[in-house]
């Protein structure tokens, strides 16, 4: 099963077999392959077989297929520490505009995903309550 694909998208071309990849596994809804520009050994990508720029636009059945694949990959890589990363939008560091999830092994402090800071803020309880109310009202 393959959902909506875009003829101009590099990941859609990989799904269709028009561009070669280092395929790890494939299901009816997803495709997993090694990243050709890895940040650590085994760095893999999982993409839905449905073209969309943002995760919130992908049908749920495709998304439900992805995390079990991420789990299988982490186990197959026999890694203890790893990151699952998914970016939406240019300012959120998305570079290929087809939803994709990274499985990034973290073998040591220097390899894998490296965050130099986590810009934590400390909102008041009232501010948090307002954010909570806004989110819950939009569900």
Automatic annotation (TrEMBL):
InterPro entries hit by this protein: HINT, Histidine_triad_CS, Histidine_triad_HIT, HIT-like, HIT-like_sf
Recorded superkingdom: Eukaryota
Organism of provenance: Lentinus brumalis
Entry protein name: HIT-like protein
Organism classification: Eukaryota, Fungi, Dikarya, Basidiomycota, Agaricomycotina
Pfam families documented for this protein: HIT
Motif, Histidine triad motif: chain positions: 98-102
Residues at the active site: 100 (tele-amp-histidine intermediate)
Gene Ontology molecular function terms on file: catalytic activity
GO biological process: nucleotide metabolic process
Every HIT domain range: 10-113
